[in-house]
Amino acid sequence: MAQSPQRSRLKQFVHANFSPAPLYPLKGIWYFTSHRYLWPLLQGRLLPLTLLSTAVLVILFLTAYLPLVAFLALFHVTKGSAWVNATFFILGVGNLLIALLFEALFVDNTQVDIFDAVVVAEGYEHLVKSRRPVSDDINQSDPVKRLGAREKGAKFAPFSFRQIIEFIFLLPLNFVPFV
Length: 179
What we know:
single chain; mainly alpha; 9 helices; Spore_wall_assembly; transmembrane helix; membrane
């Protein structure tokens, strides 16, 4: 049975304009909670990240939020939009500061180990074997234990050029007025 042209256009519109991308963080959280072998890798990182995030956001909201709302209120016609834009701007700056501080202070090779463990768990050992040995013991249920020491160093660049440019260019998008 052929679809009507309107239904076909509607389907094209939905596929072109709506993405499952907002669901990816939720899928990641679900994957993390349902795969126990990842828990020890992140256990030592979650508490410091939570404390750091809370401290940075509380300090930013207590010191910079109201002055920013007052400044934005000068340029926004709608009164509520200054509050909304200031909220997102403070959250964006907080994200920047948290990412910089966390990567400078807490990140090590844990991210590489998590990535390699997930790739091995999904059955793509051949992708990891070019960088580190992987045990062929398929009966081993813990993919982290199947990973050997890294032969070639994992290049983790916390302050890469790409990341710095991304922060610089994307942060001003918060000044676009909410209507």
